[in-house]
Specification:
Strand order of the largest sheet: 3-2-1-4-5-6-7
Radius of gyration: 18 Å
Helix content: 40-55%
CATH class: Alpha Beta
CATH architecture: 3-Layer(aba) Sandwich
Number of helices: 7
Strand content: 5-15%
Mean pLDDT: 93
Low-confidence stretches: 1-5
Order of helices and strands: EHEEHEHEHEHHHE
CATH superfamily: NAD(P)-binding Rossmann-like Domain
Length: 256
């Protein structure tokens, strides 16, 4: 870890991929500020902010805390996301479901980027990484249609932002994980099972089947996704910009 990466903000750092990303940077010697709705009992962050980034107020709270206590950033990693909407396709989703998925999976990043960009632009260097999903390219309409649409919008936004910020010294990339073995993934399977006549194991198998299988025979591990994020934030990736990196064990059957 170089001095260029001394201060890193990671959203969704309370569990899963976000926690793995925060741990990766902390182990590399960075000062890490984690964000999640609830502060976990154990974490390796220098500071942890409890905030709901699905709201404009939560994003403002995080930005103000960073401005007051740090007043500088080198890396921003947007991991927060997920789906709480019911399965069943488009007719099962209300306007409230759609807004909830957009707030969490798209607007959390848009709002926080807008608030934190002055810190990066003041130094004319920095890195922003948006964690999207392979569902932006392969939506599962029966289970997570609104989530997939929101992640597709996030990937598109990330690319557009990269075109604007690249000439100003800020690198922007996206990472799109496939099925990753996290607590949130298990919760999604349980929720989908509750809205069907299947068991949890049957639902998990259906989810795997709906992805077309995973070539390497298993889901991602959170720490594997974190390693990719860490590389993209490092000086070794100085020429990588405006890209969406897929990490899915070979799930996507086509060239991205």
């Amino acid at each position: 870890m170089t001095k260029q990466l001394t201060r890193v903000l990671v959203t969704g750092a309370g569990q899963g991929i976000g926690q793995a990303v925060a741990d990766y940077f902390a182990a590399s010697g960075a000062e890490v500020i984690g964000v999640a709705r609830h502060i976990p009992a154990q974490h390796n962050c220098q500071q942890f902010i409890a905030a709901d980034l699905a709201t404009a107020e939560g994003c403002q709270q995080v930005a103000e805390t960073v401005m007051i206590h740090w007043n500088s950033l080198a890396v921003v990693v947007h991991v927060v996301g997920g789906s709480t909407a019911p399965g069943g396709g488009v007719l099962a989703l209300t306007d409230a479901h759609w807004q909830q998925e957009l707030n969490l999976n798209l607007l959390s990043a848009v709002r926080l980027d807008r608030l934190l960009l002055p810190l990066l632009l003041a130094r004319r260097q920095g890195t922003i990484i948006h964690v999207s999903s392979i569902q932006s390219k392969m939506p599962l309409y029966e289970s997570t249609l609104a989530y997939a649409a929101a992640k597709a919008a996030l990937t598109n936004y990330s690319k557009g932002l990269s075109r604007q910020l690249g000439p100003l010294g800020i690198r922007v990339n996206a990472v799109s994980p496939g099925y990753t073995a996290t607590q949130a993934a298990d919760a999604l399977v349980a929720r989908l099972a509750a809205h069907s006549e299947n068991t949890v194991e049957q639902t998990r198998q259906q989810l795997m089947d709906s992805l077309g299988g995973i070539d390497i025979g298993r889901p991602n591990r959170p720490e594997e996704v974190a390693a990719l994020v860490g590389f993209l934030a490092s000086p070794a990736a100085a020429a990588i910009h405006g890209v969406d990196y897929v990490i899915d064990g070979g799930t996507l059957p086509t060239v991205c």
